[in-house]
Write a structure and sequence with these properties.
Layout (H helix, E strand, L loop, with lengths): L1 H36 L26 E6 L9 H11 L1 E6 L5 H14 L4 E5 L11 H15 L3 E4 L2 H4 L17 H9 L4 E3 L18 H6 L13 H14 L5 E3 L9 H10 L3 E4 L4 H5 L2 H10 L4 E2 L10 H9 L24 H15 L13
Parallel strand pairs: 1-2, 2-3, 3-4, 4-5, 5-6, 6-7, 7-8
Helix pairs in contact: 4-6
Length: 379
């Protein structure tokens, strides 16, 4: 009996050993196969099996003004080629925010005047890091006054103000630094708008973990991360920007990129209600609108006189996505850059009356010198 029990115990142990070894082998093989089948999120590009209407639009329904563009080689740019591309999109007028100043601005204005005087406008840029110069304020005011006389349409403020611009002591220059007040006033006195980009998406300040919807962008562009330990907070920068809106009611401000509040349209609407001297534009934040079509459409209805068309980085094919989101009711389609939107887009199907305001009517009010005949018979 003892021998029988011993034999049974040996058999049980052998069975457990076989099961353990077999299970371990299976586990290892499974992990090897799993590893082999893994791919990076940047590679994963599934083709949807959803059967829905797909509207391809390569030309805007109405002629439009792009108020947020950058052409960094404008002094030497072949404007004939550029205007041909604009014609293909139905872009009637482009505002190049990167006009800079001095000889660069002078040559840019000359190129436009000689080759395409009715198709382009320029914004001037000032050097905020010269803030400690003895004659800083009067020099900047004189620069703006002269630029307007030469044909400049506005002042562009880059995000470096408030984020990285420093004075001679290395201190950060706040957007609402009182030493800059004469600049904002000069723009109001000259009846030109200030297109101001302050801050970045709030997620750039959030931990770089699996919960951050901008994780892919921060992985591909790590310099965009804003370490809260070494940077002013998102809310601090926005508060500084909104402070100058309040202090300068006679100056028109174009709050770039939906003021980085495109993910919270209730907040953006409240901001526009508070500051009647502020309008906004949609450059580089279309992905925020395309993922909330019902709310975004209502926002366009409510603030149809306060929103301008802007694109930011110039790429002809990327405009197609703008047209599709604004003009169609298409569902579930891709944005053109995964790191900005790994989610799908939905069309807003804006009515013609709002499209016309967004595409050109609102901008024509701000820039009356633009040739209105470019928009006939759309008017």
């Amino acid at each position: 009996m003892r021998k029988l029990l011993k034999g049974l115990w040996t058999l049980v142990r052998m069975s457990f050993a076989v099961l353990f070894i077999g299970g371990l082998t299976y586990y290892i093989i499974d992990k090897i196969q799993e590893k082999k089948n893994l791919m990076d999120i940047e590679e994963y590009s599934p083709k949807s099996t959803l059967v829905v209407p797909q509207t391809e639009i390569q030309k805007a329904k109405y002629p439009f003004i792009d108020v947020h563009n950058h052409q960094f080689d404008m002094p030497l740019k072949n404007l004939s080629q550029l205007t041909a591309e604009m014609d293909s999109l139905n872009m009637a007028f482009m505002i190049n925010l990167s006009g800079f100043r001095g000889l660069y601005l002078k040559q840019s204005l000359k190129n436009v005047k000689e080759n395409a005087p009715t198709r382009f406008g320029l914004f001037v840029n000032v050097d905020f890091e010269a803030i400690d110069d003895v004659d800083f304020a009067p020099e900047q005011v004189a620069l703006i006054d002269q630029a307007v006389q030469d044909g400049v349409l506005g002042l562009k403020v880059y995000k470096s103000l408030g984020l990285t611009d420093r004075d001679k002591n290395g201190a950060r220059i706040g957007v609402n630094d009182p030493r800059l007040d004469p600049i904002w006033k000069a723009c109001g006195d000259n009846n030109i708008p200030v297109l101001i980009h302050s801050g970045e998406p709030a997620s750039f300040w959030h931990p770089k973990n699996k919960f951050n919807e901008r994780w892919l962008e921060l992985r591909q562009k790590p310099n965009r991360y804003r370490d809260p330990e070494t940077n002013p907070s998102f809310e601090e920068i926005l508060a500084e920007q909104h402070d100058i809106f309040r202090k300068h009611p006679n100056t028109t401000f174009i709050n770039a990129h939906l003021g980085w509040m495109g993910n919270d349209l209730d907040r953006l609407g409240a901001n526009l209600d508070t500051y009647p001297n502020v309008v906004t534009e949609i450059g580089a934040v279309l992905a925020e609108l395309g993922r909330q079509p019902k709310r975004a459409r209502q926002f366009f209805v409510d603030y149809q006189d306060r929103i301008l068309f802007g694109k930011d980085a110039y790429n002809v094919s990327e405009y197609y996505t703008y047209f599709r989101i604004l003009e169609t009711d298409d569902e579930y389609f891709d944005y053109y850059r995964k790191r900005h939107a790994h989610w799908k887009m939905y069309g807003l199907a804006l009515p013609d009356s709002i499209l016309k305001k967004l595409y050109y009517k609102n901008a024509l009010r701000l820039f009356p010198s633009i040739d209105s005949t470019l928009f006939k018979p759309a008017l």
